[in-house]
Design goal:
Pfam families: BatA. Keywords: Membrane, Transmembrane, Transmembrane helix. InterPro entries: Aerotolerance_reg_N, Double_TM_dom. This is Aerotolerance regulator N-terminal domain-containing protein. This protein is 22% helix and 26% strand. It has 433 residues and is an alpha/beta fold. The protein has 3 domains: 61 residues; 132 residues, no CATH class; 149 residues, no CATH class. The strands form 7 sheets. A 5-stranded mixed β-sheet has the order 6-5-4-7-8, covered by helices on one side. It has a 5-stranded parallel β-sheet with strand order 13-12-14-15-20, with helices on one face. Strands 9-10-11 form a 3-stranded antiparallel β-sheet, with no helix packed on it. α2 packs antiparallel against α7. The two termini are 38 Å apart. The relative contact order is 0.12.
Length: 433
């Protein structure tokens, strides 16, 4: 709106325009007496067509900067239906997609914008990592419930993250297996306690993902993982933790060096893991790649369980840090964060130390299995793509609108008006000369 006020500029120029005086033919020399020089100024609009063209130029420029779009309601009466597909799966469904487009269906991209395309060759590269469930959840905001939608995607399970939404759509979902349906990779590589190299090999297919352990001889490298347990008065806690760490070492056969100390000055200069089972503060010279310490405070009675298990909890410490929560109780409160443990490793606090889950939790903590979607080739069950028959709401709050950009039309009009303005301006100047 501010830019449209620019039309006042050509109007003022036209009003202030000075026209040359008229040349009169005289027959007497006496009429050539000296007189004051006057310029002909008129406050009336002249060359109104030129003024109109210049005003249109400014209005079109303001409209272009506003990114105009044409909105049209999407209904089953004026739109045959939608076809949403990805570039990678188009070859697998090319005949069906071409047939639908020939019947009048519109082609759209499989992203949050659902951009309208005129031909499958305009499909963009598949760079989106958006979950298909999220894509499905956005569709009811773009189209009415009775509009037929044909969705063509891959069946890769990694793209179906989150909760499946319940949507009221006339949806037909087709999924294809990508060409790269098998993958092999090395998940973990580490040294065992007998100096051999253990490789955890992954193999993923549409049917599932399997792992295989392979040991090979490795000479000359004795790298180990050093774990230090410090305690001053919680000796039983330290013994429970050491036993669980030994179970992790036996299971993985990693080269893990475990030591328990009770003197602060006996701390190694550097270690990989430091478990500080004490109420005292950490020394300033404590160095470790990862430190986990007991929280401070007064124990609070509790009746709960460790989340995801049936392990009961009896006591806990006040929570002060809620960042990067690793373990939670059944109420969602943190039990272990990135650096702080809010329970003691003692049977009077919980049944964790007696549970077989304790070494498993330490294994996941020390050697987390990092999910890598690029290797996952599992496919989703086709039955999960079938949408239940859901009745849409009786009253729709708003009718979905289809937006068409007017930028190209605006550029064409701007060019034509500019050419016309230059033509009339040149013609007017030539006539005045």
């Amino acid at each position: 709106m501010i830019l449209t006020a620019g039309i006042a500029v050509p109007v003022l120029i036209h009003l202030w325009h000075r026209r040359p005086g008229r040349v009169l033919k005289i027959s007497s020399v006496q009429l050539l007496a000296a007189s004051s020089v006057r310029h002909a100024r008129s406050w009336r609009l002249s060359e109104w067509w030129l003024l109109l063209l210049r005003c249109l130029l400014i209005l079109l420029l303001a409209l272009l900067l506003a990114c105009p779009v044409w909105r049209k309601p999407i209904t089953a009466r004026n739109t045959k239906g939608w076809v949403i597909t990805e570039k990678a799966v188009y070859p697998a469904f090319s005949q069906r997609i071409d047939s639908l487009m020939g019947a009048g269906f519109q082609l759209h991209t499989a992203d949050t914008s659902f951009t309208l395309l005129q031909h499958p060759s305009a499909l963009p590269p598949d760079t989106s990592a958006l979950s298909y469930w999220q894509l499905l959840q956005m569709l009811p905001q773009k189209i009415p419930a009775d509009l037929p939608v044909y969705l063509f995607t891959s069946n890769r399970l990694a793209r179906f993250e989150g909760i499946k939404p319940d949507v009221a759509l006339a949806l037909h979902w087709y999924a294809a297996t990508p060409a790269d349906s098998v993958d092999n990779w090395n998940g973990y590589t580490y040294l065992t306690n007998n100096d051999s190299l253990r490789i955890l090999k992954g193999h993923s297919t549409p049917a599932g993902t399997t792992w295989q352990i392979q040991d090979t001889l490795q000479q000359g490298d004795t790298t180990a993982l050093y774990c230090t347990i410090y305690t001053d008065k919680y000796l039983a806690d330290a013994r429970y933790l050491e036993a669980a760490l030994q179970a992790v070492q036996q299971y993985t056969r990693r080269k893990i060096k475990i030591q328990t100390i009770r003197q602060r000055d006996a701390l190694p200069a550097k270690q990989d893991w430091l478990w500080w089972l004490s109420d005292s503060s950490l020394p300033a010279n404590a160095r470790a790649a990862r430190i986990i310490r007991y929280a401070s405070g007064t124990a609070q009675p509790l009746t709960a369980w460790i989340a995801g298990s049936a392990i009961p909890l009896y006591k806990r410490l006040p929570v002060k840090d809620t960042a990067a929560v690793l373990w939670k109780d059944s109420y969602g409160a943190p039990l272990l964060t990135q650096q702080t443990l809010y329970i003691h490793l003692d049977p009077s606090w919980s049944e964790l130390v007696w549970s077989s889950e304790f070494p498993q939790r330490l294994l996941d903590l020390m050697f987390p299995a990092v999910p890598d979607k690029k290797h996952d080739r599992r496919m989703i069950d086709p039955q999960q793509l079938q949408q239940p028959s859901i009745q849409p709401a009786a009253k729709v709050a708003s009718i979905p609108q289809q937006e068409t950009s007017l930028e190209n039309i605006n550029w064409i009009l701007l060019f034509l008006i500019f050419c016309m303005e230059r033509y009339f301006s040149f013609k007017s100047n030539k006539k005045s000369v």
